[in-house]
């Protein structure tokens, strides 16, 4: 699954610079995650860095609209970061 930032977001600016996939940006009211770019940090870290730095519990959650297994997230990582080598 890619991740989703909920309305609990306080716009603290902690998550955006931590995202290695540049999937986080400011939305109309609070930060949002581009599900097409989010790999839950697979290919970069053991755990999603946005969840680690978020000061509000349960603000960044699995996106129920984007169910993806580890293989699909890995494929997305490869496509975004190594497309020039394919």
TrEMBL record:
Keywords: 4Fe-4S, Electron transport, Iron, Iron-sulfur, Metal-binding, Repeat, Transport
Superkingdom per UniProt: Bacteria
An MF annotation (GO) of this entry: metal ion binding
Identification of the protein by name: Ferredoxin
Organism, scientific name: Sodalis glossinidius (strain morsitans)
Keyword Lipid metabolism: no
Xref: InterPro entries: 4Fe4S_Fe-S-bd, 4Fe4S_Fe_S_CS, YfhL-like
Occurrences of domain 4Fe-4S ferredoxin-type (ranges): 1-29
Alphabetical list of Pfam families matching this protein: Fer4_7
Cross-referenced PROSITE patterns: 4FE4S_FER_1 (PS00198), 4FE4S_FER_2 (PS51379)
């Amino acid at each position: 699954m890619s991740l989703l930032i909920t309305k609990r977001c306080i716009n603290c600016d902690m998550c955006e610079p931590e995202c290695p996939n540049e999937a986080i940006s400011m939305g109309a009211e609070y930060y949002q995650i581009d599900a097409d770019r989010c790999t839950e940090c697979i290919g970069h870290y053991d755990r999603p860095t946005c969840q680690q730095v978020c000061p509000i519990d349960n603000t960044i959650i699995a996106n129920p609209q984007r169910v993806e297994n580890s293989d699909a997230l890995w494929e997305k990582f490869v496509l975004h970061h190594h497309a020039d080598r394919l």
